[in-house]
Specification:
This protein is α+β, with helices and mostly antiparallel strands and about 500 residues long. It has 19 helices and 17 strands.
């Protein structure tokens, strides 16, 4: 898996940025730490994550969401590092939730970075949400699955939601359904940088001036460890400090007794906020207008980012098809050379002095059974052998030519299919963009109408479930009935075992 050295430009840039920045942090151990190897025991034998995903994918989804990976076109499961190193554009498009970075040409997951370079990780990737359990760092998806109440109580700023039983972070949702996020979770603040969506804490850590100028509604502050938290976190963890230092952070509790700031009320229930707090009317309208501009900007940026990623993914497909064709062509050439060499050796062996001729004369008919056999002259034997050899060479040449032509035909068909897929994706992206732009304008109109008619008790709105993701990796292959897990299928504490490669 690590023998593949051809990395896309994105990976190279990440490597160039990462390595020098690490010099100011903790030194590496004398021996480079290995990658974490995900897996667990089954019937007394340790099995890697690829075995579990191949044989018991449902169990993995229910117990180890942190074992990141996907299936390729041949339904072979590969871990996240393989995808980031071989198809980074496809990975960024389909799996932005696979957090990690490159170091010395190898991609490592967030758990590895948190274990060996926690200070660097905290400073450079605050958006890699997670925490340690029994000494092992796990991402937010694991905490949501195994210790949800702790996560909700201590980290309301780990934004995300479930889709088909699996929790995904806000970056994944923004990638797939930005309009649904704006309607359902307007407090999932973030923006795009170089085609990738980052939450507000990343912006305040890396580009605070930009966040301050272009996103004044991102209310939050840094704690004593210089970690930035949103206003809901401060209200939940230190409301006294928040009231003293940020009296302008106005808010109220919703129907679920959860505190929400004024900007959330402007997006979700402006008529309720205006009825409860008449003095909020002007700030609510200002917030609606600012959010409208930001939402237009976000939808445009998301469209531009996906257009670029689809283009890079298309390039990756053509490169992969070319590499596969080249490897198959080399295999054909090797086979042809071996066959020709074996044929020539056979011919030389047959032509050597004292060897019996390969050509056997025809058996005499009944009328000639009692006639003496006439020996075949040596010159005639050589001519027969030469004709046989020539025919065999011609047959091998025809076979090789047919194989090469079939291989070229398959490559052309694969490239044509990839081009059609790319065109379909572009067309679908444009249709989706038009619908999203219309949805943003429609919601803006509804918000202004609601603000104009204050109502403390509006009829409840039925929240629509999230639509199907636009990009969601490859489907899990169909598997036969699975054998029960050792120990009855109970999830081990700490999320299973991790070995090292």
């Amino acid at each position: 898996m690590k023998g593949i050295t051809s990395l896309m430009a994105t990976a190279v840039v990440l490597l160039m940025l990462t390595a020098p920045a690490l010099a100011q942090y903790a030194p590496w151990p004398a021996q480079m730490p290995p990658e974490p190897a995900w897996g667990e025991n089954y019937n007394g034998a340790w099995q890697p994550a690829s075995w579990w995903w191949t044989n018991q994918p449902q169990w993995v989804q229910q117990n180890h969401p942190e074992w990141w990976g996907d299936y390729d076109a041949d339904r072979v499961w590969h871990p996240a590092d393989w995808w980031w190193e071989n198809q980074p554009a496809w990975t960024q498009l389909h799996h932005p939730e696979w957090w990690g970075d490159f170091f010395q040409g190898i991609w490592y997951p967030a758990s590895w970075w948190w274990q060996y370079q926690p200070a660097w990780t905290l400073a450079n990737h605050p958006e890699w949400w997670g925490y340690r359990d029994n000494g092992v760092w796990y991402p937010a998806s694991w905490w949501w699955l195994h210790k949800r109440q702790w996560m909700l109580a201590n980290h309301p700023d780990w934004w995300g939601d479930e889709y088909q039983g699996t929790w995904y972070p806000a970056s994944w949702w923004w990638q797939n359904n930005p309009v649904w996020v704006q309607e359902t979770h307007p407090d999932w603040w973030g923006d795009y940088d170089n085609g990738r969506w980052y939450p507000a804490d990343w912006w305040w850590a890396h580009r605070p001036d930009y966040a301050r100028e272009y996103h004044p509604d991102w209310w939050g502050d840094f704690d004593q460890h210089h970690v930035w938290h949103v206003d809901t976190w401060w209200h939940q963890n230190d409301p006294t400090w928040m009231a003293q230092h940020h009296p302008d952070w106005k808010g109220d509790v919703d129907d679920q007794k959860q505190w929400r700031d004024l900007n959330w009320w402007a997006a979700k229930q402006p008529q309720v906020a205006a009825a409860r707090h008449p003095d909020w009317r002007q700030p609510l309208q200002q917030s609606i207008e600012r959010q409208h501009v930001e939402q237009q900007h976000a939808v445009e940026n998301q469209h531009d980012a996906q257009t670029q990623m689809i283009g890079r993914q298309h390039t990756e497909q053509f490169q992969a098809i070319g590499r596969q064709n080249q490897a198959q062509r080399q295999t054909l050439e090797q086979q042809h050379t071996q066959q020709m060499t074996a044929l020539e050796r056979g011919q030389q062996h047959a032509a050597a002095p004292g060897q019996q001729p390969q050509h056997q004369p025809e058996q005499p008919g009944p009328q000639a059974q009692h006639q003496p056999m006439r020996p075949v002259p040596a010159e005639e034997q050589q001519q027969v052998q030469a004709r046989q050899h020539e025919q065999q060479v011609e047959a091998l040449q025809r076979q090789h030519q047919q194989q090469v032509q079939a291989l070229a035909q398959r490559q052309m068909q694969q490239e044509q299919a990839a081009a059609r897929q790319h065109m379909q994706q572009q067309q679908e992206l444009e249709r989706t963009q038009a619908a999203r732009e219309q949805a943003v304008e429609s919601r803006h109109t509804q918000q202004l109408q609601a603000l104009a008619h204050p109502n403390p008790n509006p009829p409840p709105r039925r929240m629509a479930p999230p639509p199907k993701p636009q990009f969601h990796g490859n489907p899990v292959p169909q598997h036969p009935a699975q054998a029960p897990r050792e120990g009855g299928g109970a999830a081990p504490h700490g999320g299973g075992q991790q070995k090292h490669r």
